[in-house]
Automatic annotation (TrEMBL):
The keyword Transcription regulation applies. GO terms for molecular function: nucleic acid binding. It comes from the Eukaryota. Pfam families: mTERF. Belongs to the mTERF family. It comes from Liquidambar formosana (Formosan gum). This is Uncharacterized protein. One of its GO terms (biological process) is DNA-templated transcription termination. The keyword Transcription applies. Keywords: Transcription, Transcription regulation, Transcription termination, Transit peptide.
Amino acid sequence: MNSYGLPLETALSTSQKLQLDENNLQRQESVRTFLKSQGFSNTHIAKLVTKRPEIFQFRVEKVRPKIQFLIDNGFSGLLLPELIVANPSILRRGLSSQIKPSYDFLKMYLGTNEKIVAAIKRTPWLLTSDLKGTMQPNIDLLISEGVPLHSVAKFIMFQPRGILLKVDRMAHAVETVKKFGLQPSAPMFIHALRVTLSMSNSTWNRKIEVYKSLGWSDEEIESAFKSDPVCLACSEEKIKSISDFFVNTLKLEPKVIIAYPKFLTYGMDTRFRPRYNVLKLLESKKLLKAKKFTWLLTLTEKRFLDEFVIKHLDQIPNLMELYRGNIPASKISL
């Protein structure tokens, strides 16, 4: 409680995992002092001792080389304590047997320390996972399938968790994407693979069934997935909600979404409803030239604000409030 600032209950639980004799108390204090000298705050140290108290019984000589290696390779400032708190196992693994080989492996594909740091920030376990059992075989599989090295690098950067999965899971995902007609050499393949790996088979199948329940054919689902794989990453509720909005509110055919599946990636309450309310009001005031709203929903936020909100504030002073959802359309007046 005094050294780490832990509340009584946590202190009691943590102390049961430690040997509190004189020698070990001195060692714990040495480790704590060393970590503070490397930028660890009291909060970082309290979290660390709660998650992995045994680290504070190591000799400083065991901890120092790993900390220095991380600092030398881009983990400076707050990045260092944040990484260690996120994955304390880094201080338990061997520098030469685990940490350095994993780092060198990542550097072989990512090239720069900056990119490696970005990937590790996304998935701190990259430095402590099974290099020979999962990481290397997964990358070897992608390369053997014909995925270009620059696409492999993108995959590691943006979906690092994917290379930590079991190899049979990766192989299944690769085959699933190929069945949808995307070849490993295609730029979109990696994006489709990321989506496929992000969900279980049961979730994947449920989403396919949702699309079918909305009248989509297998060919249409395949076409949409090839065009924008993220359409299958959307929640089932969102797929239904946006489809309902397009069909029942905008009075459009489902083929509009099939042709441009990116519609499914936009927010219903952050984009579609606010813009629809503004456009309907402008239309009722005869201030809108466009007859169809569909493509106006895809404009950038800045362009939509400039052309359809700010431009008409002199005529409709409360238009911004309507757009922000602060007042209903019925209370707008010229």
